[in-house]
Structures are given as structure tokens and as C-alpha cells.
Amino acid sequence: MMAFKKLVSIQEIEVGKLTVIKTRHFSVAVTKWENEYYAFEDSCTHDGEEISCGKLEGCVITCPRHFAKFDIRNGSVLALPATEPLTIFPTKVNGNDLEVDLESV
Q1: CB of 64 closer than 8 Å to CB of 53
Q2: Please, are residues 17 and 54 in contact by the beta-carbon 8 Å criterion?
Q3: Do the Cβ atoms of 92 and 7 come closer than 8 Å?
Q4: Distances (CA, A) of 51 to 2, 92, 97, 101
Q5: How far apart are CA 102 and CA 62, in angstroms?
Q6: Burial class, 48, CB count within 10 angstroms (exposed 0-12 / middle 13-18 / buried 19+)
Q7: What is the CATH number of the domain that holds 37?
Q8: What is the pLDDT of residue 18?
């Protein structure tokens, strides 16, 4: 069962830019791309670097430390040295709020 909770107002999210929200258990990076909202754990699966400090190009984020690449839509690894996908959180818009399910991961 999904447990969506408000994370941020959609007005705070810019297309192609990352917004990081710290929750009790996670740092969550959120962005909007092609009219969809995406949320993922702000941690490279290779070494734990804050991936939000990296470069976001379209739906691909590059880790600033060792240049691992991930698809923000599904977390898949696109370039080594990472071998594990990013943790992706389900999102939905409710009015002006972006709600994220942090419990289903």
C-alpha cells in the first residue's frame, strides 16, 4: 500500500533543476522533466556522494565524484562505476503539492 505525503509545493520545483528536501530518513532530490515529477534518493549508489551536486541533463544525472550516470525516471544505471540503480520514490500531484511515497522502497 502506498503512503503518499506532501514533500514540497510544485511551485518550488523548476524544470531541469534539482530541489533537495531533507526528511527524517532521506535526502530526496526532486525535479520536473517533460511534464512529470521525479523524486529519488540524493545519494549515488556507488559511493554515497550527494548526486544532486552533479549535472542533470534531461532525464540523466551524472554523479560529480566518479561520473556514474543514472536515469531519473526509473533509477537505472547508464554508466559505471555504479552498478546499483538509484532509489526512486513514487510521486503524485495533489493540488499544488507534490506528494511522495517514501515508505514503499
Answers
A1: yes
A2: no
A3: no
A4: 25, 22, 24, 20
A5: 23
A6: exposed
A7: 2.102.10.10
A8: 97
Question: What range defines the domain where residue 59 resides?
Answer: 4-101
Q: Which three cell numbers stand for residue 56?
A: 542533470
| Grid cell locating 71 | 536515469
What is the C-alpha separation between 34 and 36, in angstroms, rounded? 6
Q: Residue 87 has which C-alpha cell?
A: 532509489
Encode 33-97 in three state secondary structure.
ECCEEEEEECCCCCCCCCHHHCEEECCEEECCCCCCEEECCCCCEEECCCCCCCCEECEEEECCE
As for how many domains the chain has, the answer is: 1
pLDDT one digit per residue (tens) for the chain, 105 residues = 679 999 999 999 999 999 999 998 899 999 999 999 999 999 999 999 999 999 999 999 999 999 999 999 999 999 999 999 999 999 999 999 999 999 877
Cell 531541469 maps to which residue?
A: 16
